[in-house]
Amino acid sequence: MGFDIKLTLINAFKSAVVGLIVLLILSIPTNLVIESNLKSKGYTYCSWYTGSSLRAPDVWLKNDELCLQDGSVIISDIADWYEQKNQQGIEPSVDELKEFIKETRKRRNEHINSF
Prior knowledge:
This protein has helices at residues 5-40, 75-88, 94-113; strands spanning 44-45, 60-61. By secondary structure, it is mostly helical. It has a two-stranded antiparallel ribbon. It is elongated and about 70 Å long.
């Protein structure tokens, strides 16, 4: 009995289709459970820090006051800032975030205007 490449490819394609269907079906309830869990733990969705790409991660914050529209243009800088605060074990204040946004936007504008 020999190896049948055509049958192998057909089975691989069928497996991929079934896997994709299962993924699509399970992703909706899984996302709902995760979202519910985050909300029950006091997190709030921050649309200003969530990127426009479909692959961009959703941003959930423990303190909804830290979701500032001014920060939407410097999302990656804010993500780095939050990560740094998290690693230091510091819960940032709204005033600290506002100051960070102001300084970062000022530096970016200076950099853009220097061209």
